[in-house]
Amino acid sequence: MTVRRRRMHLAAHFPGVNSTTVWADPRSRSQIEFSSFEHLARTAERGLFDFFFLAEGLRLREHKGRIHDLDVVGRPESLTVLNALAGVTEHLGLAATVNATFNEPYELARRLATLDHLSGGRAAWNVVTSSDAFTGENFRRGGFLDRADRYTRAAEFIEVARELWDSGDSDGVFRPFAHRGQHFDIAGEFGVPRSPQGHPVVIQAGDSDEGREFAAATADVVFTRHGTLEAGRSFYADVKRRLARYGRTADDLKIMPGVTVVLGDTAAEAQERAAGIRRQQVSPQNAILALEQVWGADLSSYDPDGPLPDFDPVPDSGISQGRTRRGDTVAIAEKWRALSREKGLSIRQTVIEASARQSFIGTPEAVAAELEEFVTRDAADGFILVPHLTLGGLDEFVDRVVPLLQERGAFRTEYRGATLRSHLGLSDPAGRG
Q: pLDDT tens digit string along 392-406?
């Protein structure tokens, strides 16, 4: 079998609102103090990563009318944090998740162009959409879009932003812009000179057919959750195949799955550490919470160490609001029951087994080899690491795995360009839009 040898790309995701983060660990630190963001960003830059990635939360999730246990009270606005990080980093790309449903093109294009100037060409925008009326209550015009409209608005949003970024030059000479479309009808002058990258890098996440097509048409990077080699190869081939219809090549779009890594001096030690992390991530209380999201009912009387409910879920019960478990809950429940029966698992054990997050577990040498295999076998162009600890969760990977990747010739040994586009090997956007 012939494999292509390519250098991988690496990025870091700030851990936060998800079941990956271990809140109870004594080493866990603040989600809002600048020192937390600074430490992870500096670590990522020490590891020569391409970019640092912040998520966005526009409303605190709720479960049974109370703040969700895995949410955090206090989520700083991403672009504000990244503007501050631009002053304490030199090379690292700075990626903000910003919702295309609840923002407007002129304002966001201006903020992203500003970050690109302040950082010397390191800005990126992770485009997300929403059809969530619960989140939309925080915004005007009824606050939300039908699911059928969210990608059409996002596509037009990106189109308008690129028109704005292209309307000025680096000398501060601007051409008036005018856009008349389904979702936006604006005209005027942009007012921010063309930024070092021309266009900030656009990142997208979405696994539906509509999401894959959107990525092929508009994105520079895809953030995916396909964690196995075969699933990654299938997704990679499908999305890359779609690029040609938009006049793009395979190198114009980087596919980077979000992954977790657990290391040990031996394979057995790594597996033991991974199991311990999963037990921390899924406490008895959080096991019941996860079960309630699937079954759509109050299950607080159930024993986490006991059996799963013997009744079917209540679809669309509204027990959780915001970003919660989606999909066919009846099918999920049946899958969990089958898993529980097959392995003799309790509620907590089933949730741990069914929602396992560790993607790569092993010695540093084994993990480095497996990461490289994903890239050489066209399952990924690189990876976005999602550590389980806020503050120090990335250090061990940078100290123990990155040097091995460099020895294998699989990862850079220095930054060779000044912009995020140069780190990612993306072409100049001149004329694109």
A: 999 999 999 999 999
